[in-house]
Amino acid sequence: MSNLQAYDEEQARARLGGALSCWTVEQGHLRRRYVTSGWRASMLLANGIAHLAELAWHHPDLHIAWGSVTVDLSTHEADAITDRDFELAAMIERQVTWRPDSGGALDGTPRDGQWRLLAGDD
User: Fold this and answer.
1) For each of the chain's 122 residues, which pLDDT tens digit applies?
2) First CA to last CA across the chain, in angstroms?
3) Is the distance from CB of 35 to CB of 107 less than 8 angstroms?
4) Which helix (H) or strand (E) holds 6?
5) Nearest-10 crossing angle of helices 39-56, 83-97
């Protein structure tokens, strides 16, 4: 294991904020629940997170449901929350919440009906 800073739950909570303000610390994990529009959106989201995790070689626990994906991050070899978890959480958050710029060439997914991916996309 590389020289990683391990955080207890209180220290980890103190680090949350800004880009990670939607994440919580629960049962020794950094946790984020993304509410989706259904099964297809949950699977697309989970596969995207899995791709990032594989590239980072740091694998979260994913809980996939019809209308949500919950991400639990902790560093198993340290049996704690570490810098790896904060870094991967930030990477996941950037990718999942990214939307095309207004006026750009990319339209993004429709925000209604069957094409909507994340609940709250308005």
Assistant:
1) 568 899 999 999 999 988 999 999 999 999 999 999 899 999 999 999 999 999 999 999 999 999 999 999 999 999 999 999 999 999 999 999 888 887 889 877 777 766 667 776 65
2) 42
3) no
4) strand 6-7
5) 140
Given the structure tokens 């019809």, which residue do they identify? 66
CA–CA gap between residue 57 and residue 77 (Å, rounded): 13
Question: How far is residue 3 CA from its own chain's centroid?
Answer: 24
d(CA 117, CA 45): 8
Question: Which domains are seen in the chain, by residue range?
Answer: 6-100+108-115 (3.30.1360.20)
User: How far lies 11's CA from each of 30, 92, 111, in Å?
Assistant: 12, 21, 37
Give the model's pLDDT for residue 118: 72
Q: What is the pTM of this model?
A: 0.87
Percent helix / strand / coil, the chain, rounded to 5: 40, 25, 40
**Radius of gyration (Cα) for the chain, nearest Å?**
15
